[in-house]
Specification:
Order of helices and strands: HHHHH
Strand content: under 5%
Number of helices: 5
Largest sheet: none
Bound molecules: fe (iii) ion
Mean pLDDT: 97
Structural class: mainly alpha
Radius of gyration: 17 Å
Shape: elongated
Length: 163
Amino acid sequence: MLKSLTDLYEEQLRDMYSAEKQLTEALPKLAEGASNADLKQAFRSHLQQTRAQMERIEQIFKMRDMGPGRKKCKGMKGLVEEGAEVLEESNKSAARDAALILAAQKAEHYEIATYGALRAYAEMLGETEQARLLQTSLNEESETNELLNQLARTINSKAQSSR
Ligand code: FE
Ligand code: FE
């Protein structure tokens, strides 16, 4: 039962852990399906970051003497399904790359929203070290989103000039 900010914090930590886990399974498929070498590389390096982000949440679980439970993040499940749909409905092309960038940016925005709230809750609860760990992951998600923005500039215009 959700009754306090602590309950909400712990529930959303578990949700985020599930979200990151689902992304570690999806990112290799996105990298595989991308044509642009820089985009492939971006997905691969974000896979490494995502693993580190899971480890940060594991550290927080330890500090709080709690576990991930069996919670499945439904939001990320839907976003991952949308990414899979892009791969099913297209062949390798700049248009597919543009669609993969958007699918990935939707996931990044979802993560940015949750990490931002989690960091704020940790601060409210006086959990300075946990807030710091969450801020580190939040920064990585923002940087990834910015990198995807940059790649979109080139890739969208490639998609525009092909048909
Ligand atoms: Fe992440
Ligand atoms: Fe991410």
